[in-house]
Design a protein that fits this description.
Elements: E1 7-12, H1 15-20, H2 26-36, E2 42-48, E3 55-60, H3 81-90, E4 96-100, H4 102-113, E5 122-127, H5 135-144, E6 155-159, E7 162-166, E8 171-175, H6 176-181, H7 188-192, E9 203-206, E10 219-223, H8 226-237, E11 241-245, H9 248-274, H10 279-290, H11 298-302, H12 329-338, H13 347-350, H14 358-373, H15 385-389, H16 391-399, H17 403-411
Parallel strand pairs: 2-4, 4-5, 5-9
Antiparallel strand pairs: 1-10, 1-11, 2-3, 6-7, 7-8, 9-10
Helix pairs in contact: 3-4
The structure holds iron/sulfur cluster (2 copies).
Length: 416
Amino acid sequence: MIRSGDVYYAWSTDPIIREGGSSGGFVSGLLVHLLESRIVDAAVVMKKGADIYDASMAVLTDHHEVALCSGSLYCGTLLNAKYLYRYLQSNPGQNVAVVVKGCEAKAIIELAKRNRINLDNLILIGLNCSGTINPIIARKMVRQRYGLDPDTVGSIYFAHGMCQVETSDTMYSLPIEDLEQEGYGRRLCCQRCQTRIPRQCDLVCGDWGVIGEYTGNTTCIEVCSKKGAVTLESAINNHAIMVEAADPHGVEARSRVEEAMQALSLKCRTDQFSKIPPGDQLLKSMMLDMSRCIKCYQCTEGCPLCVCEDCQTKKPWLVKPGQVPPPFMFHLIRASHIADSCINCGQCEERCPMEIPNSLYMHALQTELETMFGYHAGEHRGIPVVSKVNEWEEWEHNYGNTFEKVIEVFRDQGEY
Ligand code: SF4
Ligand code: SF4
């Protein structure tokens, strides 16, 4: 019997999927099973676009389409939470399997807390994540540091502290830390991220911990919820997936990778936050950076937490229309509304045409609020701090201003 907390080696029983998919095709095999047996109506995945620097999101409704989804796309810096939210708005009540990185899992959980997504309708299939690279930086890095034409590269990935770039006949490696000190490598938010194995999901998968004869053809999976256990059991019973108990030495190795990645993230986070000035200097620094803003709304559009239909930044008595740069109130509204729950996905910074370090500021504020109030953004338990402070406004946005709805949303999380 499969239980939450179990760790397995797993792979697809279909030889074509096992051969073609990364790490034994577990995720692809599971998606085929879920779609074919109609356990889910759709699957939200990332797929490769024109080349390895180009990722796009896709909704699959037919199990034959699963081959479209990617293995690991390290230049896939998109976030699927809002895409999923909009898909579910147009297809209410559908059951969906979603393949997610840590930031996506956390964003989806925050959306569930805002009553925008019902987790009961989702199966979250998490992927271990060491971080992603901005596609423009990736091309520049390949050309300048590896001396290669970016269009000749077949894959870029991280392993054992190295950034590995593969062409058709050669593999080139450089230490990630060295690259990042020179301004290449992973996005800054990914460098700061501590969610390497997203246990918020129902199942979490990756190749960390796969050792010996299993290397390269097997996925190491951890069952993180009752739903994850039931999902995996159905795939095994349907002969779509094979599992074996994971090698205990492999499980230890997986923990060591996770700990090493988290230690490096903490160092990066401390380094990056130490460059933000303290106290009232922080406000001045933010005002100076944000004076470049052209109010294009890409930060709000990209942010998975910005979902209010009646956005305060569009109220003329708060943010005077037609003014560029917009009054600082524009940024204050965003910060006061979501800083408690920022999940450090980096979308607000990635999309900003004026290169304002939005995510750095917001994540630093969130970290401070977490220390003050103990709210951990993106975890299942807890209510966003702002929901407690600014009750009426928040409840109106998210719960139709009824206490019953709040109780309904949080009852299963043991909050009431
Ligand atoms: Fe301003 Fe950048 Fe946000 Fe656009 S994305 S509104 S320029 S902060
Ligand atoms: Fe992501 Fe920026 Fe929103 Fe934080 S504020 S959740 S980093 S988009």
